[in-house]
Design goal:
The chain is α+β, with helices and mostly antiparallel strands. The chain has 27 helices and 32 strands.
Length: about 850
């Protein structure tokens, strides 16, 4: 065993700084290391390095209540999780006294990066007064933890204990006869995957009340394979928070990982809490977080011998569970069985035929599924017939009525469970073969009553069953075991459903209405029933797609925003759509009240930036039609559906919809130009190097215009304006080439000053902050600007600008020494803090007595 142990490094404090820079640097190393690792080796070892966005989300879930933190990272990789924890601790108001990190890693390529990451973590902690020590253990974590937990005559290591553990454990299967499997059995765990072993071993090493945050596949929450893991883990640990992602793709996009993942936070305690926090987002990086407090007994039923973890992200999901609880029958009680198709095509290759011919029977694949039934034969390159031979006879079933379902759903599939009726009356054959990618429902190897088959297919295809299945199945497969554990209506109810079905299978809307009316006894369905809500959101998404919105806007957030701006409740007809004036907060309140989607209050900005802005750009909505002069960053800012768009959306679902969409799209560019012109009339003009540019309306930009026209001309004569910010856009003016020539590379994550002037006469870079609603250049902001412009080859001058003396008086105690203040109403004067001249660059090495306050 090789153990690397090094204390806090005495590196220059200004060699690296700021949390965003640390994470950016480490994430760059992650991508570099990923390219170096062989794909086959990564898959074998389960190496999927953590992106910085995921790492930050995980680090932010800790409570960190103790002053001295001992942190475990088992399988540290390049240290992305450790860097995120350091950034999180340094940004919190109550910082710990000390942080000791123990990082396990055995890959030599990754260890070199890990050491560099720990050096940067040391620097960051040093800047914020946190004592930092670390230890790199170049040994297999399972081996080391088993030795510590089960010492013997030959291995008696000191047991490590930790207050916190953060892990992205390797995702790889382990053989039943492997050493890892034997070691894990020694600590009381039987598992077939490394990530379960890493998680339990880390939990064993935690101190009482210690915290664990781990990202794992969601598939451990149910099923037979991880039953032992769930029982062992939940005996030691109490879940406190679970975060889920709506997208299966985005967490590890660089590694092509499609496994659905979740993040869990758990504490080492026997008694579970009363509630657990369930949060969700569409993907990592999406700040719009759905938040829901769930009773612990609803997450894990204490009477459930399987210890399934049932994650309910919102109140709508709770309604899904409540409605599904009305169905209590098992397949066995119905006298039914579900099996996997017997025909594995590559094993009977010599008996496959492209088309039906004498001596063959139909061979059915998922490709034959069509509108609730089977289209046979169909246009496909697959073999569609199977020769009847002594070898294949045992693989066939009598040609009778069955319900078939797909075993695999693609990421594009709208539903996980896709079921169809195999109607034997439509095929002239004595028997049929079902390929291995299908499941089929039968009665002891024989077919079903046709009415029963139709009722069962309707039930399986309902939005209710799909929503329920998605809640508790994190994988894309629909195995026979999953269908056996599902609960069903009784035979009478299924026959009642089936009796409503003729030769034409119902649409999704008709299926859901049948289930509500026939199975849930909803003669007057609740306005906010889960199926009604899901269908309405789907309709809104269909509209956005028809209007040509890109994939980034085709999500639940955008669908709900559109519905809120139309004041359209789940059961309202589209013709009742309205056009209220609504701000971001009322939009989110509508989402919660009408659609059961409660988002965290601090996620409002995501709705504005990632949905409302795009709606504005597309001309779908207008901003502040009641007061065009209102600043876009005003708390009173309101949005309204554009008049022509409202008229269009009222026709959704009618015969005229397609025609109206085409007419609207043909004229939308004209509408966008018209509203842009109206908005432009209220903008504030400024002149830069002879060119007239405009700023969006508002007091902040009024002050910026005065800085450009009065301050710059008076105090930096003949200076060059390099940057002018705008509250509506990222910037109104940006001379990137000139900034680059001065050694400045703009950090996209950094908060830029409002105005930057190159005072060429003195060769100074003047950074100016306009204060109307945010604070001045205080010591913290001064440090931020120094870090942001640390590569500048010319000295920095920092100025805070106010509109009036009264506004300045509010912030006098906050203003940093070695900066200047300008007030627009006294435009010919500067107030300077410890400056020898009215405008002066300062060196960090100057010995200036702050008490003089000149």
């Amino acid at each position: 065993m090789i153990v690397q142990n090094f204390q806090t490094l005495a590196l220059p404090g200004n060699s690296y700084s700021t949390a965003s820079n640390l994470l950016d640097r480490v994430d760059g190393w992650r991508q570099e290391a990923t390219r170096k690792l062989q794909q086959s080796q990564r898959g074998e070892k389960g190496q999927f390095l953590t992106p910085s966005s995921v790492a930050s989300l995980m680090a932010g879930m800790f409570e960190f209540n103790c002053p001295d933190i001992s942190l475990l990272d088992a399988g540290a990789g390049i240290g992305s999780l450790l860097a995120a924890v350091v950034c999180e601790l340094c940004q919190r108001p109550n910082k710990p006294r000390s942080l000791h990190v123990t990082a396990y890693e055995i890959d030599l390529i990754l260890i070199e990066y890990l050491k560099q990451t720990l050096e940067l973590c040391s620097i960051e902690c040093q800047r914020f007064g946190i004592s930092f020590t670390c230890e790199v253990r170049e040994i297999d974590f399972i081996q080391d933890s088993a030795d510590m937990l089960q010492p013997n005559l030959f291995t008696q290591p000191v047991k490590l204990e930790f207050t916190h553990a953060i892990i992205n454990p390797p995702y790889a299967k382990i053989d039943a006869k492997s050493q890892a499997r034997t070691l894990l059995r020694s600590i009381g765990l039987e598992t077939s995957n490394l990530y379960a072993g890493f998680t339990v071993a880390a939990a064993h090493l935690l101190k009482p009340n210690g915290e664990l945050v781990s990202i794992t596949p969601r598939s451990f929450c149910n099923g037979l394979y991880f039953r032992d893991f769930r029982k062992v883990f939940l005996q030691m640990m109490a879940l406190r928070q679970v975060h889920i992602f709506e997208s299966r793709q985005l967490q590890f996009r660089d590694d092509a990982v499609l496994q659905e993942t979740i993040i869990v936070r758990a504490t080492k305690q026997i008694e579970p809490p009363d509630t657990v926090l369930i949060t969700s987002s569409s993907s990592v990086g999406d700040d719009l977080v759905l938040s829901h407090q769930l009773p612990y007994t609803a997450l894990i039923n204490p009477k459930d011998s399987e210890q399934f973890i049932r994650i309910l992200p919102d109140s709508v999901s709770q309604k899904v569970v409540d409605q599904m609880a009305q169905f209590t029958c098992t397949l066995e009680e119905l006298g039914l069985t579900v099996s996997t198709g017997k025909v594995v095509d590559f094993r009977v290759r010599s008996d496959l035929r492209l088309k039906p011919e004498n001596g063959t029977v139909p061979l059915i694949y998922p490709a034959h599924f069509s509108a609730g039934g089977v289209e046979y034969p169909t246009a496909t390159r697959k073999h569609q017939a199977l020769a009847v031979t002594e070898k294949t006879a045992a693989l066939l079933v009598p040609n009778e009525h069955y319900v078939l379902s797909k075993r695999f759903s693609s990421k594009e599939e709208k539903k996980r469970i896709v079921a169809v009726v195999w109607d034997a009356n439509k095929i002239n054959s004595s028997s049929v073969g079902f390929e291995n990618h299908l499941n089929y429902f039968h009665q002891q190897g024989r077919g079903l009553d046709l009415t029963l088959a139709r009722g069962l297919a309707v039930y399986l295809n309902s939005s209710l069953v799909d929503a329920f299945f998605r809640l508790f199945n994190g994988h894309t497969q629909v195995n026979a075991t999953d269908l056996r554990t599902l609960k069903y209506p009784n035979v009478e109810q299924l026959l009642l459903l089936g009796a409503q079905i003729g030769e034409i299978f119902p649409t999704q809307r008709e299926i859901d209405q049948l289930v509500e009316r026939q199975l849930l006894n909803a003669t007057n369905p609740l306005e906010n029933s889960p199926m009604t809500i899901k269908n309405r959101i789907d309709e809104s998404l269909e509209i956005l797609a028809a209007l040509g919105f890109p994939k980034g806007q085709l999500n639940e957030r955008s669908a709900l925003t559109l519905l809120a701006l139309l004041d359209l409740k789940p059961k309202d007809a589209w013709e009742l759509a309205k056009s209220p004036l609504r701000g971001i907060t009322p939009i989110m309140e509508f989402m919660e009240q009408q659609y059961g989607k409660k988002y965290a209050p601090n996620t409002r900005e995501t709705v504005r930036r990632q949905t409302v802005h795009q709606f504005l750009d597309a001309g779908l909505i207008v901003v502040n039609p009641d007061s065009p002069e209102r600043p876009v960053n005003s708390p009173k800012t309101a949005y309204q559906i554009e008049e022509s768009a409202l008229e269009l959306l009222r026709t959704y679902g009618t015969y005229d919809w397609d025609k109206n969409v085409r007419a609207y799209l043909a004229s939308v560019e004209t509408l966008k130009k018209r509203y842009a012109q109206e908005r432009e009339m209220a903008r504030i003009p400024i002149t830069i190097a002879g060119d007239v540019k405009t700023l969006s309306p508002g007091g902040h930009n009024v002050l910026i215009s005065k800085i450009v026209s009065e301050f710059a001309e008076r105090f930096t004569p003949a200076g060059s304006l390099l940057y002018v910010g705008d509250t509506d856009e990222k910037f109104a003016h940006f001379n990137e080439a000139s900034l680059t020539a001065l050694g400045v590379t703009v950090d996209a994550h950094g908060k830029m000053p409002d105005v930057i002037v190159h005072f060429t006469e003195k060769n100074w870079l003047v950074l100016i902050e306009a204060v109307t609603s945010h604070g001045p250049i205080n010591p913290k902001r001064k440090t931020e600007l120094e870090n942001l412009f640390r590569s500048s080859t010319v000295p920095l001058v920092m100025v805070t600008a106010f509109l009036s003396r009264k506004a300045m008086a509010e912030y006098l105690s906050d203003i940093s020494w070695e900066t200047d203040v300008w007030v627009a109403e006294d435009a010919t004067h500067l107030v300077h803090f410890n400056g020898e001249h009215l405008l002066q660059a300062y060196s960090k090495n100057e010995n200036i007595c702050e008490s003089e306050g000149c």
